[in-house]
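If you are new to this repository, start here. Below is one unmodified record pulled from the training split, so you can see the exact layout before writing a loader.
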Amino acid sequence: MNIISSNLLADALSLIGRSVLLYYKENGRTLNDVGEYVATYDLPINVEGSFQPIPRNLYESYGLDFQKSYFNFYVLKNIIDVSRGTSGDKLVFEGDEYQVQSRTEWYPFDEWEAVLCVKIDNA
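And here is the target side for that same chain:
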């Protein structure tokens, strides 16, 4: 239900504070020197929102891999797009990279969305 002049995420962020993440929008794939396709990204933009870990007790019900770390990014903009390409977009938070997996779009109702991300292990 949309309440006129109400944005629940904006209200919550005014209380809990905001995190700033770098958002890299995937813009296609290119062939590298060894013949593999590698994702390319636009220059990053700063995006503010709330970056929250998914509780591990929810992993099984969400169908998530227990060997990985998942987070939801609650963002006030309708910019994250996971429907293009095979690699998807990336976020960077405090030096760690996260692959965008999916989103729950609340934008048409309350002008925000929740983006499910998985931490990329660069080791």
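Two things worth knowing about this chain: The chain has one domain: 8-119. The domain at 8-119 is CATH 2.40.10.270 (Thrombin, subunit H).
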